[in-house]
Fold Diaminobutyrate--2-oxoglutarate transaminase.
Amino acid sequence: LSTHEGILRRQSLRESAARTYARSLPIVPVRARGLTIEGADGRRYLDCLSGAGTLALGHNHPVVLEAIRKVLDSGAPLHILDLATPVKDAFTTELFATLPRQLAEHGRIQFCGPAGTDAVEAALKLVRTATGRTGMLAFTGAYHGMTAGALAASGGARDAGVTRLPYPQNYRCPYGIGGERGAETAARWTENLLDDPKGGIPAPAGMILEPVQGEGGVIPAPDAWMRRMREITASRSIPLIADEVQTGVGRTGTFWAVEHSGVVPDVMVLSKAIGGSLPLAVIVYRDGLDAWEPGAHAGTFRGNQLAMAAGAATLAYVRENRLADRAAVLGARMLGQLQGLAADHPCIGDVRGRGLMIGVELVDPEREDLSSGNPPPPAPALAAAVQQECLRRGLIVELGGRHSGVVRLLPPLTLTDEQAVAVLDRLADALAAAAR
Ligand code: PMP
């Protein structure tokens, strides 16, 4: 057996069947730089999954490596619980420099652990402690993580404490309306639920939303809807939690995705790119919510010095090089080109996204019910085939959406014009091959 095959075979025997990425991406990465991953079999891939949006600067960016090396060479302790250190101080200062002004000036940070889901748990617990209430408002199609609280707030899950509200979407709008009017209908529905003395619900502890749903199939919330959610929650003293785990650090064309609407949430949940490819998750929140006792939210791994150094270097690089602006320009261009591609491929039902968070929803045009006005049904098998055809052409993409029918592109923000062309060429070829 080659190294490549041997590793794949041993892992598939020993690893739980619950593993996900390795099933659809049978590669054995041994080296990586920027957009490119090299496998043990010598094959090279353009990585448009980027750790589900983690790698804002791509793999092994020199400024990230340099920051990590500096900590390693300094003799600083690598494990230090959550004690104050110069590395942590530098990270916090850099992070606060990027935050919406109200949070930067009057906000607090809680280091939560390695994973996004840790920070979601902290956010849910924080607003429950601060309000003394328990119920939570969350949205259809949401993804917040795999631990109990985060999972309960994610779409599809059933939990007595969570009330699920419709997330606005143009394509497959639950009201069959779409656009601003569909979003306004969704907002009214939320208001009625909170205010109806008979059919309504008790005052909840908070509302948690993603400014752009990622795992849910790349669905950007309209800015007007975001502002309505802010108004609805603020006027009823319900803390608003923005989960920016995937949308943060320039990904959507602004440093934080809430900037598009100007909404300042009470709590921001941050992970993925803030650790510069290493594990790090925090919440930042309005000072007034800080009602919990010392020790109320602990955890051993909240002081990852390497992640803080890599994260600070990443945040600074994105800010100094205006990579959010770059993501906006390049993302808009790529969306336009994908919309052009959709004209030739009836199996592309929708192309959408914000910045370099892009989704292509594949459908089965032959099963379209023209009399209903609904879009054709999703085509998960086709999406899986496109993913495999991409892989054959050396392109890594991820799937998302309720039916796994959405091909997602999350390239690094450092993507060059030439690389963007290569990515779209390979995707177009893969689509043509899979749709044949
Ligand atoms: N929230 C959002 C919006 C996410 O996209 C994810 C991960 N895809 C999470 C939370 C959970 O993060 P993690 O996988 O690091 O626990």
In short: Residues 323-344 form the longest helix (22 residues). The mean pLDDT is 95. The chain is about 40% helix and 15% strand.
